[in-house]
Amino acid sequence: MLELYNQIGAAASKITAQWKHTPDVGIILGTGLGGLVDQIEVEAAVDYEDIPHFPRSTAVSHRGRLVCGQLCGLRVIAMEGRVHHYEGYALKQITLPVRVMKHLGAKLLIVSNAVGGMNPYYRPGDIMLIEDHINLMMDNPLIGINDDRLGPRFPDMSQPYSWELIDVALAVARRENVVAHKGVLVAVTGPNLETRAEYRFLKMIGADVVGMSTVPEVIVAAHCDLPTIGFSIITDMCLPDALKPANVNEIVATANEAEPRLRTLVTGVLEHVAQNG
Amino acid sequence: MLNLPSQISEAADYVRQRWTKTPRVGIILGTGLGNLADHINSELRLDYRAIPHFPQSTALGHKGQLVCGHLSGVPVVTMEGRFHLYEGYSARQITLPVRVMNELGIELIIISNASGGLNPNFNSGDVMVIEDHVNLMNDNPLIGINNDQLGPRFPDMSSPYDPQLVELALSIARRENFMAHPGVYVGLNGPNYETRAEYRFLRGIGDAVGMSTVPEVIVAAHTGLRVLALSTVTNMCYPDAPEKTEGNDIVAIASAVEPRLRSIVSGVLARIDS
Fold it and tell me: Which of A66, A86, A52, A79 is nearest to A19 (CA)?
């Protein structure tokens, strides 16, 4: 991990060359949630391919640029399109943007993703605040010689998601009449979806939803002491005894349909942060 | 795995040229237990970096020395500091020292580690005598073309931890009046500690969780060595009442418990021929 320090610096200088501000918040927009970008008062946009050491996004429905600007009175830096482990990138590469956001001065990370719901009380289109996670990605972004300048060798994981902001987001959801749950995300590598037996297993170990992202970024955010809030959109239900073949177009459509509700929660949290610091 | 025999013999020759005795026991000292090495009547200390093909120790609380000498009158070779997957090494690299100690002639390997307690009946500072393990490390030191000189393609794992030595260790703990439990160790990559959701999952499958030992024990089973593994429960993992876990506290508790582990190790060595 000793090469990361210089990579972070090089990537950050490229961004500061085009945008001089200090971001308050870093945002990672997942599947179908790119629309939040339209609400940002854009001051600069940098393609991933122009930023040294940034991976390129190859996933369906993911663009690949960093959008810098203002949202709800805060300076934000938003990743429009993320990269996934299943695209063949190492977790260390996937999570470099999080370290760059921290380096630029972000004090909060907002992550969002699309997930399959395993909790039978969830419905497609619902939003879940990620309360905790289980890492079954068979890899960890922190493997290698630890760079103590970036964070501790053994980061604590007793509260990787900010409980205070989860409560804020749930209060916004009640006020705005949006169905939102609080639950556990299990992350697998993908890219295949799970078998019925795997869904039974994942449910048994305590997960409410399953996805192929977010956990590496959150581990790195915990490593570099960046408070995090995570939102999942339940795009399809994964009930092992009544499993239907997954349809990627339907998943993207459900994510798009839920996107305004997610946007309401994200902007509600940002307004709270803008008012309360 | 086909180039392993030459690596093993080069490393073993390097040790033999400097220490001619045949060790009967190999010891791997984990987090905070390095002080045990001070009680060895040491005849030779070798830096890992000097030994051909040995990886380097980078972990907190781990030195990087092979100590050859006598403990309780028994010739031993001791690893002061071990290697972990989270340091970026493969399971095969981590376990090379076990094969080298086997080549030097040991009959028994004693392994220690620090772990988080999952079983709610444990307390921090207790010793767990590892009775079995669950490998969730997503790597296996035996992956690759098997070298039949080193061990079988499909090693049996029905009893990787010697049941008689488990009983002996527990009886020593009773005699010395400290808590020791037999239990199942779950091996994970780390390096982050676990989330509460992960603890709830792991609680269902094991008694303690840590980031080492499993690869070494798999290789010991492959080579046919007897194994005794002792885990210091340095903190309790209560998913519903989580406390922050901090690496340095764990090293401190492991160091405080070290005399207990030492009493088990010397008790086992004293009865090695019985």
Answer: A66
